[in-house]
Predict the structure.
Amino acid sequence: MKKPKILVVGSLVMDLIVSSERIPASGETVIGFGFQTASGGKGANQAVQAARLGADVTMVGKVGLDSFGTMLINTIKNSGVDVSHITVAENTPSAIGNVLLEVKNGKTANRIIVVPGANMKLTLDDISFIKDTVTDYDMVILQLEIPMEIIETVAKYAFDNNVPVMLNSAPYVPISQRLYSYLTYISPNEHEAADITGISVIDEKSINEAAKAILNNGVKNAIITLGSKGAVLCNDTEYIHSPCVPDVDVKDPTAAGDSFVGAFCTAVCIGVSHEKAMYFANLAASITVSQMGAQPSLPDIDKVLELMKNRGIDTTEFIILRGIK
């Protein structure tokens, strides 16, 4: 079996991470206890996660002509991602994400502000090669941190050629019915699902209602990630609630959703069921949140397989990711 081939078109962001016991109120200064930089961006994180789990991944994106841009490219390249289609915007800086981690009573919550920078300079010329090469891929992954024109164009290229499309609909912006119709999967978190549907996602009933409301827009599969409550997948014939992994010491939840998306898509591309792909993705995300930083925390296939074995889960269908060429 060949490696699954995945095309990720999306964002690269340098995360500037500050940890404190509480987030300051307006006009207030508090003393923090930690600072670090880490390569991130939803697109780059998802690309790295898929690559570390055994997929053959190509990343399309844009960075600035600066030290952050160089670091962003080198980091994902070192994880095995093809970076030959990442371009440089000479007059716009690389994107940055200001990540505020509130660490209190053994729990960690995050707040993130992203300055999109070069991500929003991605052009139709930058993605023109995809029209003739999209059939080389088993899956296309998109997010909402790049221009909507690019997202819709790439999704249509894939849809027209029967290539599955995953849209991680974050951060929330309204999307067209046309784009919904191109999507095989859409993956908001509970907050984004509420923004899309107007339904507060607070319990099993509202989760079900929100997922079905998303399906009514024309997408084939709705996946809602629910943080500590796991994730739900809904389509015309399935409703799967996959619980999160218990007893996880959460240190940094920043890249949890990206880990989930990268792992889920990799699993689907090797032909496992939605239920197994969801659980595999939850396992990967549980490892991610137990470590600091976005890309530094994303696990490789050996770590996920080890966790599966430790929890008595059959690894037969996933073991091929360790050795496929």
Q: What stands out?
A: The chain has twelve helices and 13 strands.
